């Protein structure tokens, strides 16, 4: 029925999106969802070019970066992906994911993401450790990074302004600079306080 996989996927996604009444959040994960899966590159991928052309512009497209688990995300790569997809990507960040090797737990700070990255994104999803309690540092430091990104936006939109106001009482980077080491220290301090609080609860 369809001349290519990309056209088939885009057609089905478009129809489902419209059937659901065009929801404000509707995400599509392409078969080529990182640079290492693209042939020969994101900008020259016939598959991604078709997705960019055929997928309705209101549908968000998920991207993990250079690899499935990307240690770094650069502005240059996101510019390339945005150009071929004709929209800013939604980053599906697997930095902390350990479902592929449950012998490992990732407790370091959120890092390896270029400053000013948020303005190039349509959204960001963090794929955490499978163990719930192990995600305090990942989520806490992601919050500190997010605050620093909001602070670095020269022209925050209305939603961004509200977010800055809501986070105004929180400690962390407010001046647009982000230090993974400082974010880690903040997270560890708050995690110890959380552990001590739980230890005082009845039945603990």
UniProtKB/TrEMBL annotation:
GO terms for biological process, alphabetical: glycoprotein metabolic process
Domain of life: Eukaryota
Boundaries of every GH84 domain copy: 1-150
InterPro entries for the chain: GH, Glycosyl_Hydrolase_84, O-GlcNAcase_cat
GO function terms (MF aspect): beta-N-acetylglucosaminidase activity
Cited PANTHER family: O-GLCNACASE (PTHR13170), PROTEIN O-GLCNACASE-LIKE (PTHR13170:SF23)
Name of protein: OGA GlcNAcase
Designated gene of the protein: Mgea5_2
């Amino acid at each position: 029925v369809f001349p290519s996989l990309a056209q088939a996927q885009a057609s089905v996604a478009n129809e489902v999106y419209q059937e659901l009444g065009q929801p404000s959040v509707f995400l599509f994960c392409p078969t080529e969802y990182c640079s290492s899966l693209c042939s020969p590159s994101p900008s020259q991928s016939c598959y991604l070019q078709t997705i960019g052309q055929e997928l309705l512009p209101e549908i968000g497209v998920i991207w993990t970066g250079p690899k499935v688990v990307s240690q770094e995300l650069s502005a240059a790569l996101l510019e390339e992906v945005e150009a071929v997809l004709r929209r800013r990507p939604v980053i599906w960040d697997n930095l902390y994911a350990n479902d592929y090797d449950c012998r490992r737990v990732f407790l370091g700070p959120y890092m390896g993401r270029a400053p000013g990255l948020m303005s190039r994104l349509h959204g960001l999803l963090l794929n955490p450790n499978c163990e719930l309690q192990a995600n305090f540092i990942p989520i806490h430091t992601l919050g500190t990074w997010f605050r620093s990104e909001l602070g670095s936006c020269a022209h925050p939109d209305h939603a961004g302004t509200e977010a800055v106001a809501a986070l105004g009482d929180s400690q962390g980077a407010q001046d647009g600079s982000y230090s993974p080491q400082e974010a880690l220290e903040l997270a560890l301090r708050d995690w110890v306080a959380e552990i001590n609080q739980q230890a005082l609860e009845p039945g603990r």
